[in-house]
Amino acid sequence: MTQHIEDYALIGDLRTAAMVSVDGGIDWLSLPRFDSPAVYAALLGDARHGQWSLAPVGPDRCSRRRYRTGTLVLETEWTTGDGAVRVTDLMVPDSSAPMVVRIVDGLVGTVAMRTRIAPRMNYGKNIPTLRSAHGDLVATAGGDELWVTSDVELSTADGSWTGAFIVNAGERVSFTLSYAAAGEPYRPAPDAESALAATDTFWTEWISRSTYTGPWETEVSQSLIILKALTYAPTGSILAAATTSLPEQLGGSRNWDYRYSWLRDATFTLQAFLATGYLEEAEAWRDWLMRTVIDDPADMQIMYAVDGTGDLPEQTLDWLPGHAGSTPVRVGNSAATQQQNDVWGEVLDILSAARDAGLPDAADQEKLERALLDQIESQWQDPDNGLWEVRGPRRHFVHSKLLAWVGVDRAVRSLEDHGTEETHQLRRLRALRRTIAREISERGYHPGRGAFTQSYGSPRLDAAVLLMPRYGFLSWDDARMVSTVDAIERDLSDHGLVLRYAVSDDGHNVDGVPGSEGAFLATSFWLADALHGVGRSDEATELFERLLSLRNDVGLLSEEYDPRTGRHLGNTPQAFSHAGLISTALTLSAANTSVSSFAGAPEALGGQGAETRTAVA
Q1: pLDDT for the residue numbered 1
Q2: pLDDT value at residue 509
Q3: pTM tops 0.90, yes or no
């Protein structure tokens, strides 16, 4: 493939998503849901692995493209020597089955168009059988069917449908592709105009509920729509990203499947939703989590499939050459079985935040919270794999200890908010909170480095410690926090953008995975928050504006960025990155006023900042 990661736009229907290139090709589409096998997989190979091309004859890249304001409806335009044409791409959130709609509108003159619809089931491996039925075109492989309607005649060859047609100014040509399980009754696809109107209405009504008003309203709205598109409506779960195996190093092996619901990542998305008025999404995710884990909450995993399945075996697809030759291509994710001790605290924190935002507790929610607190009490002193999911030895990660403190702190706050009298449980939890805080202070801070570091006793830096004030553990004016911000900005940055951690240590990769990676966009937003927190607001705004400039032409951010080449890296669009954008916009918009716990001030976390400063002093 000649396209770069930043060349793609997203369309989706809250069940699955497609990636559309600047040349008009749909190069990725999993059906019927996000983590299903792809029917178009050219993103991780080439046209042989499945692609739906639709573009004028001649030019490769479009002249411009954009989302319709306040929607996930993509408009791509080409200007040729003979005229101009627009292709509108969308997926319909409320349709009875997943479907892609493509509408070609002639704008000026006469434009010669061509299309090739070449599905390749099972991630590009299987060529389907093609036939006609009920006036539609049907592709069948295994238990899956794709039904295609077209306003122009298509011919069949080599397991593909192809067509060439002319569109004049004022003319419209439409295509639809719908998914059905083999044997399902025939359901005619809705007409393209109705589908477009319904999709426009869905998105504009949804984004109109945002409570954010500030200098970056357009950017925040775009990121909110991307985060909403990464939710799975049938259950309420939230994805980390829409793709698998887009490389963190071009040509390297750091290629992972992010089409699942990490509880940690979801909490960052939910903080963005809560801070902008979207309580319904928090309730849907909370209810999904309850259904998924309540039978045995002590055995809660760090991630699940979108339907709550916990078995996510990692395997490689050897027939795919990978994006930019980056192999292996992986589906599934073995991190699901890792020990990551931070996740209990993150879940307790977001449940507390949702409660503070006005969401009533669910039935059995107390049972879940009690089980998570028990896990913290029994295991907070154990080493783990950490939030970055290192595949090397377990360590005592400072961030994991921080989130143990957060979980206990939120439990204490809950008891205090309910007017609980001085009981043995409350005294015990307060004592545990002090114990964890004292240990982090004594073992997590490295005097020689002048910073909180990645793990106990290590001088290695980790950007995750920038979250300490956001969770209320320290105030930004604590001298150790100020020096930590300075150290990370100085020693963990690449051309002004922040790495998660330094991958290599004297030629040895500390995370157990070969190769290197780019600057991590979420942690770069965290640095902007931190610069604002320590009083360097002008620098924070400058960094934030630079990060905004790294978005692609339709506002998407991937996981990482290479400041040397200007290339996006990692899976896209990445929820972590877009949640970070919203967080920093809220922080900077609020200036010196703490509007929510998400704005990053300890005092906004129920007034816990002062007590915490005393506890860790």
Answers
A1: 57
A2: 74
A3: yes
Report the Cα 127 to chain-centroid distance in Å.
31
Q: 452: which 2 tokens?
A: 């909180």
Output phi, psi for 186, to 5 deg. Answer: -65, 130
Phi and psi (nearest 5°) for 602?
-55, -35
The candidate with the shortest Cα–Cα distance to 110, out of 55, 192, 65, 170, is 170
The answer for 442, left when phi > 0, alpha when psi is -120 to 50, beta otherwise, is alpha
- List, in sequence order, the alpha helices (H) in 304-356: 343-356
Q: What are phi and psi of 414, to 5 degrees?
A: -60, -45
Residue with tokens 């704008």: 107
Contact 237, 288 (CB under 8 A): yes
Tens of pLDDT, residue by residue over 301-343, are 999 999 999 999 999 999 999 999 999 999 999 999 999 999 9
Please give the DSSP secondary-structure letter assigned to residue 397.
Answer: B
* Ramachandran bin of 441, using left for φ above 0, alpha for ψ from -120 to 50, beta for the remaining angles: alpha
3-class SS of residue 387: coil
**SS3 of 426-475:** HHHHHHHHHHHHHHHHHHHEECCCCEECCECCCCCCEHHHHHCCCCCCCC
Render pLDDT for 476-488 as a digit per residue (tens, 0 to 9).
Answer: 999 999 999 999 9
